[in-house]
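Support case: heme C complex. Customer-provided input:
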Amino acid sequence: MNKLIAIAGGSTLLYIVLSVLMAVLPGIELSQVPPGPEVNQLTLWQQKGRQVYISEGCVYCHTQQVRPQAIDRVFGRPSAPGDFAYQTPELLASERTGPDLTNIGKRQSSKIWQYIHLYDPRAVVPQSVMPSFPALFKLVAQAPQGTQPVPVPKAYAPAHGVVIPSPDAQALVAYLLSLKQPALPNTQAAGAPAAAAQAPTGATTAAGPTGSKGASTFNAADGAKLFASTCAACHGAQGAGVPGVFPPLAQNPVVNAKDPTEHIHVVLHGLHGRVINGITYAAQMPSFESQLSDSQIADIIDHERTSWGNQAPTVTAKDVAAVRAKK
Ligand code: HEC
Ligand code: HEC
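Agent response - structure generated as follows:
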């Protein structure tokens, strides 16, 4: 009998000690980590979106943790404890059927893209296996005043009526767009190309990953990589755009213009409200002024100017610097 008590008591004690050592103490320690710089508390609206994210099961397929591994660099820098200061419970998740969403607000900042993608992922990512979430939208004959219908491309739009986002969809997208990974101080030097493309360098003419070579040589590989990580989310990997939502860059007059000033200007300062080939685009093009160096922008532009049937003179980092200086 005494032996039995000793075994039961001993193992219970061991269990308690190990639980405290391996779960409780690290938990207490983590809860005292101060929020990292630029890590903000969610607004009430974004918190509601987070609830929708949980209840719709997005966590089953999407992680929010960037591991310190080379294959995770496309998603951002490795996650740090301070990133999660305001997130309890953390939505780290373990399955990655879809991409990690830690930095999705930066990677895909277009609200309109997010709505179309939730309504039917295939409309913007043809090969997508993500389920559609039509229940987050309402189909109405006419959009109520002050509400912008979602510009679903024709092939995916309902035959009649227009699609408008429900409050749940609006909150969910507000939450998704809040998922931006702040740069860690002193971690940018090590930047691999993908990480450097994600992290704003703030540098204007500084050497990016492309800076070590002569400023006038166009690096096709870098241009293609940077285009894939910064532009393809909207304009498509093949520059085909999304009909009526994001303009194609293949055969685009600005991209094929001899004088690259306008092209450089659009990438530096963004664009909104321009009618292109008779089409008004509801979405807007973000500015990349603070995110990309001159030589990175030159490489991207040269990639556009020599791909998908486009044929236009290439540009140099100097050309970009000149347009940047003009404002
Ligand atoms: C069954 C798995 C699955 C579920 C559930 C799921 N997704 Fe996805 N998701 C994917 C896959 C696969 C992709 C990659 C293809 C694509 O972009 O559509 C993706 C892509 C995405 C992207 C684009 C990521 C990028 O880097 O371009 C976003 C944003 C996203 N999902 C949000 C959500 C949200 C919000 C929910 C919940 C409402 C959700 N997903 C539910 C599988 C899933
Ligand atoms: C969040 C979505 C989005 C991203 C990311 C994006 N663009 Fe755009 N881009 C747009 C939209 C929308 C327009 C059209 C705006 C308008 O018509 O007012 C546009 C317009 C353009 C135009 C002008 C086309 C014309 O005919 O005037 C060029 C060039 C361009 N983008 C290049 C790029 C490059 C290069 C990148 C990456 C560095 C990029 N875009 C990233 C959405 C995006």
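Residues 20 and 169 are 41 Å apart (CA to CA).

Case will auto-close in a few days if no follow-up is received.
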